[in-house]
Amino acid sequence: MNPVPDFSATPAPGGRSHRIVAKLASLLSARWFMEILQAFFFIYLARRSTSTYGEFMLAINLGTIIRLIAEFGLNVPLVGLLTKKAGDPGEVLTQLLVLKAGLLTMAYIGAVGFVNWQHYHSPLYEFALIIGLGYGLEALSTTFFTALQVQGRQLQEGKSRALAALLGYGYGFAAIYWGAPPLAIALFKPLETLVNLVGGRLLAGIKLRWRRLSLAGLGATLRRVLIFAVLEVTAILFNKANIFFLQRFAGSEGVAQYSATWQIVDGCSTIAATLILQSILFPLFVKFWEVDRQEVALLARASARWLLGAGLLLMMVLGAESDRIIPLIYGPKFGEAIWLQRYLVITIFFSLLHNLAGFLLISMRLERLLVMVYLAALAFNLAFCSVMIPRNPLWGAALAMILTKGAMALVTFGFIQRRLKVFPFEDLAVVALASLASLSLYWGGLFFLRRGWALLAAVLALLGLLQYFWAVRGPLRKKSKGAD
């Protein structure tokens, strides 16, 4: 067994080498492996039956809500708790595991009540409870994975996640291949989560302190993370609310059409948010905010540059090729998903800006501002869904997400921009000009070239312009005075 790691070790301020690329490669390889397995699994389900696929997607969204309630925002402050020299990592992890187990129990009971209230019938009822439990248990395994991230052991985390995905989705593929009933197929998620839970516990190498538990300690921890819980719960609610409205007014078929494209669009921004921002950059933001704010500003600006560059590239490809991507992946039954994707790609840009700003706000200890933004976004989203989705289900669901994410990005990134000057005017001009030039080249090229060649020319132009202006004309420099 590995010795108890030293969580308090902090790199020297001002140092540029944070092994970001190595850590990112470890998590990215595991995440892509998981995403590929998951994608093929659900594509196969979608091609067999759009209604079954829609039922699975609704169950997954409900399970995600259960997991976020069970996590209760505990993973974010766990980074700070584990980096304190005076703290006991075993005691901290034990307290959080007990809290999560209690919250998971309450969330699952609430989910059972919700599916009965909505009068979901078999097999959707069973899907929701089985898959929901699998996602809920993930709240426990992420506790150990957060500890591994603070230790800088993303490679071990990646291996554990990849093994769990292989066993879970491997079982799912085998169940489908051998003609198992859908309820048996749904067990893929509990299996994957149990493997992650065992693997994370063994890899963390931390002895849990069960005898040191006290109600006072649990209460203090709960109060400390209450604000993060509100953040997590409100975030998942405004991200998933439109799915439940869709189920009510458009049925499983409507959920399937929306989910087909949302799996692609949201998956792109989620990878950046969870792997790059939360798992790698956020711990650095937390460590350096009090000791070297210039370093935080430089990291944030560099992150904004290449995140937005990647986001623009993805938006262009996914939007232009939606009529090829959707039928190729899901088959001919998902015609509505084609036009949905052309509008929903804009949320990639909004999500990347907002997530970067959100983690910076947390690092700056401005969680209350973020809570107010989230609560306002949830209120707006629910009101908009209740008015628009009954009239035009798919368009209402898409527009609710676009407007909610756009407004949040405007408020949170606008605040960060004023405080840290993360995105100077010249960078903003580069993004705008590169986007306009590449789009003009694409639309103009359609008159002379085949669409694939026009898109390739536009992509190369976008990459070339960003590379020239940011790598050659606009290198990052550290100022003599710290950021405000």
From TrEMBL:
Which locations, inside or outside the cell, does it occupy?
Cell membrane
Q: InterPro entries in the record, alphabetically?
A: Poly_Biosynth_Transport
This protein's record includes keyword Transmembrane: yes
An example Gene Ontology cellular component term from the record?
plasma membrane
| Organism field | Desulfobacca acetoxidans
The protein's name in its UniProt record: Polysaccharide biosynthesis protein
Q: Where are the transmembrane segments?
A: 24-46, 58-80, 92-115, 127-150, 162-180, 225-244, 264-286, 298-320, 340-362, 369-389, 395-416, 428-446, 452-471
**Keyword Lipoprotein carried by entry:** no
